[in-house]
Amino acid sequence: xxxxxxxxxxxxxxxxxxxxxxxxxxxxxxxxxxxxxxxxxxxxxxxxxxxxxxxxxxxxxxxxxxxxxxxxxxxxxxxxxxxxxxxxxxxxxxxxxxxxxxxxxxxxxxxxxxxxxxxxxxxxxxxxxxxxxxxxxxxxxxxxxxxxxxxxxxxxxxxxxxxxxxxxxxxxxxxxxxxxxxxxxxxxxxxxxxxxxxxxxxxxxxxxxxxxxxxxxxxxxxxxxxxxxxxxxxxxx
Length: 237
Ligand SMILES: [Zn+2]
Hints:
This is Polysaccharide deacetylase. The protein contains 8 helices and 8 strands. By secondary structure, it is α/β, with parallel strands linked by helices. The protein has one domain (33-222): Alpha-Beta Barrel (TIM Barrel), CATH 3.20.20. Strands 1, 2, 3, 6, 7 and 8 form a 6-stranded parallel β-sheet that branches. The chain has a two-stranded parallel sheet with strand order 4-5. Helix 7 links the parallel strand 6 (165-166) and strand 7. The protein starts with a helix and ends in a 15-residue tail after the last strand. Residues 43-44, 94, 98, 135 line the site of zinc ion (ZN). Zinc ion (ZN) binds at residues 43-44, 94, 98, 135.
């Protein structure tokens, strides 16, 4: 009889030891989840009040962006280029003329326009940007990017950045700001958002605060493109 009680006690003890040693579930923070990144990019500046207004919004919201500049527009707007640079944004190359007929005649013509723009920016703020965006994109109605162009640009230490989300403000600059906001919302881990800061991009200015709010609300980190940012382009065979 006594032995039976002892046996029960031992079993009970073993159960207790087992329960005590059970790991306590701990709620872990999602430390392994990747940080989502948004690169706001503005093409076709510097362009007077619109570019200036965009800079004011970026300053208020305390977020960096990237500006792909047209060389021919820099003259008499040097102070605007300086403002972009001194407020912590990236400067990129977007050709001298922004004309398809000039740019896509040959690789050499394209490269020359980019290097001329680089030189102009250098004489304005003292840095030589080596990030560039193809006017109308790497693959447009007149041109498709090819290996020989990529090699030529890389040999000249230039890096290529298309976009992977389009606000739509280039094709339809006077569309409602709500359309640009809707187009700009993405759930990708890495968003390179195409926007414009040209003279006609007034509705982009109106859309920008809500676009920034969306990405802040969704825990994205805002970054400016620099030469360490992985390139973005696709070759269409
Ligand atoms: Zn452009």
